[in-house]
């Protein structure tokens, strides 16, 4: 079933490229909407896979907007997103 989630730290096409390529193997096609803030991702996902998606997004530095992160986790995901963004820009 198609679901849309708000994600944090997505700034540009490089971030979007990272999300679409890094999530594709496990979750299939991911659409990233850069026209809204907070940014949104849309994908066809079964409910039981959502916890794995949450973990994958945090690992990449792009947590869902409703994540309850500590201050340290928030700083860590922001730092990870800068790296993910740079990698995404190099791979476009």
Describe what you observe in this structure.
Helix 1 runs antiparallel to helix 2 (about 50-60) and helix 1 (about 15-25) packs across helix 3 (about 70-90). The termini are far apart. Strand 2 and strand 3 (about 40-45) form a beta hairpin. It is globular, with a radius of gyration of 12 Å. It has a single domain, classed as Alpha-Beta Plaits, CATH 3.30.70. Helices cover about 50% and strands about 15% of the residues. It is built from three helices and three strands, in the order βαββαα. The longest helix has 20 residues, at about 70-90. It has helices at about 15-25, 50-60, 70-90, and strands at about 1-5, 30-35, 40-45. It has a three-stranded antiparallel β-sheet. It is an alpha+beta fold and about 90 residues long.
List its salient traits.
92 residues; Alpha-Beta Plaits; 3-stranded antiparallel beta sheet; 3 helices; 50% helix; 17% strand; globular
Could you please say which CATH topology applies here? Answer: Alpha-Beta Plaits
Provide mean pLDDT, rounded: 93
Largest sheet features: 3 strands, antiparallel
- Tell me the radius of gyration: 12 Å
- Total of DSSP H or I helical runs spanning 4+ residues: 3
Query: What are the segments in which pLDDT stays under 50 over at least 5 consecutive residues?
Result: none
Spatial order of the strands forming the largest sheet: 1-3-2
Beginning-to-end CA distance, first to last residue = 29 Å
Structural class: alpha+beta
Q: How much helical structure, as a percent, in the residues?
A: 40-55%
- The CATH architecture designation is 2-Layer Sandwich
Number of domains: 1
SSE string, helix = H, strand = E? EHEEHH
What is the class in the CATH system? Alpha Beta
Classify the beta-strand content into a percent band: 15-25%
């Amino acid at each position: 079933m198609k679901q849309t989630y708000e994600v944090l730290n997505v700034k540009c096409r490089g971030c979007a490229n990272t999300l679409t390529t890094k999530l594709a193997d496990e979750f299939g096609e991911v659409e990233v909407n850069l026209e809204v803030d907070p940014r949104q991702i849309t994908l066809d996902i079964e409910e039981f896979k959502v916890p794995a998606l949450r973990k994958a997004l945090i690992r990449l530095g792009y947590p869902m907007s409703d994540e309850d992160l500590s201050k340290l986790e928030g700083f860590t995901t922001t730092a990870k997103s800068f790296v993910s963004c740079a990698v995404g820009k190099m791979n476009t």
